[in-house]
Specification:
mainly alpha; two-stranded antiparallel ribbon; 2 strands; globular
Amino acid sequence: MRLSQIAGICLLAASLAACATPASTLPIPDASLVSLPDNAEAAEMTAQFSALMERKLPILDRVGVIMARDRYVREVFIPQFSDAELDEAVRKQFQDRAGDYVTMIDRLNTAELKSVLEDYSWGDIVEGEPVLFDRLFHVVQHSPDVAFRAQVLSEIRPYLDQGLIGKSDYALMYDKVELANGRGQLYGTQYKCVDGQYNTYNLNDPDTVDARRAEMGLAPLDEYLKIGREMYGPCAE
């Protein structure tokens, strides 16, 4: 059976049981079995690390394939349409149709992530280290489910206030949610094709955007757009 057919079955099935990412059948190593070093500080760090991994790895078992799938399709897709020598008509049609397939993957990832979040909270994901949240948050950013993105934005706000998640991640999601609800973006993180190149749009108070971006740990808007244009290449409206 082709991968596209499998994805379609997963998206249309009433139950996600057959499509959900399976957890590892091998046991997570027991943190209490780790031999601690003689140095007291090193021993405390080792014990904390081992205990944290014992709690976090079961979550990674559930979301690892979701995150890898999200990243992989984009690492293959983006270089193909960003080729500066590509004919514009070819670029446009490829982006549209192959982009439809990427959206199918994003729907599948969203459905599986929702299943994971029935068993684990964002607090569980954020706990102790930022890496798992940072990687998983890209899946939420790419989700086509507008209500889901807004829900996650609300749920993670306390962790932003506590300094447990990156301000830049929050700013990206905030702008995306605002635009989806018919409002202007605050940080200029979202752009679209305008006159053959990517540019920000529906931006509130553009004269002060760089100050707001700085507060969220983001580069000035002109620099951000330059990087994006170099990465994605020309565009066709």
